[in-house]
Specification:
Structural class: alpha+beta
Helix content: 40-55%
Order of helices and strands: EHEEHHEEEEEHHEH
Shape: globular
Radius of gyration: 15 Å
């Protein structure tokens, strides 16, 4: 099963040093029954893209909570055994948690299929989005527009062998 784990660049550096993404439990995003129903698609690539975007949003929240963090979203795509990721562990199908899964233990970085990271030119929009998250959560439409601006940036694909260059 492919899961998408939201991180930050410093989190990616820590995972690289440890050789694993963790410790567990990990919150990740995947193609779950709830996500399939919400997205109304049978195209697995579209569904995986939706899960990736949900993980990117979670990465933005991690960045917002860490003022010293580099303003680039990071998502690691990992392949885990079926059953290792539990859907909707404690949200009772809350719409904000669609696609969310919990993984009990750390996952070896060697199980990563790819790393997705914002391009450097997304930094300004990601910084503005991180600063606006609180107001957007409270219903401020202008703040939500700013948060959505970060989503206009596609995450770039990198192989795991490229992690040293990303965290340098």
């Amino acid at each position: 099963m492919r899961v998408y784990v939201p991180l930050t660049l410093s989190g990616l550096a820590a995972a690289h040093r440890a050789g694993e993404v963790g410790p567990g439990p990990l919150t990740a995003y995947a193609v779950t029954p709830g996500l399939r129903e919400w997205y109304v698609s049978d195209d697995i690539e579209e569904l995986e893209y939706a899960a990736l975007n949900r993980a990117a949003s979670a990465s933005l929240r991690l960045i917002a909570g860490r003022p010293q963090e580099v303003r680039r979203r990071v998502v690691v795509a990992l392949d885990v055994p079926e059953g290792a990721a539990v859907a909707d562990p404690d949200h009772v199908l809350d719409a904000s948690s669609l696609g969310e899964v919990r993984i009990a233990d750390a996952v070896a970085l060697s199980k990563a299929a790819a790393v997705h990271v914002d391009a450097a030119d997304a930094g300004k929009d990601v910084a503005a989005a991180a600063a606006s998250l609180g107001a957007a959560d409270l219903g401020d439409d202008d703040a939500q527009f700013t948060v959505d601006g970060a989503e206009d940036h596609e995450l770039l694909w990198f192989g795991i062998q490229e992690i040293p260059g990303l965290i340098a």
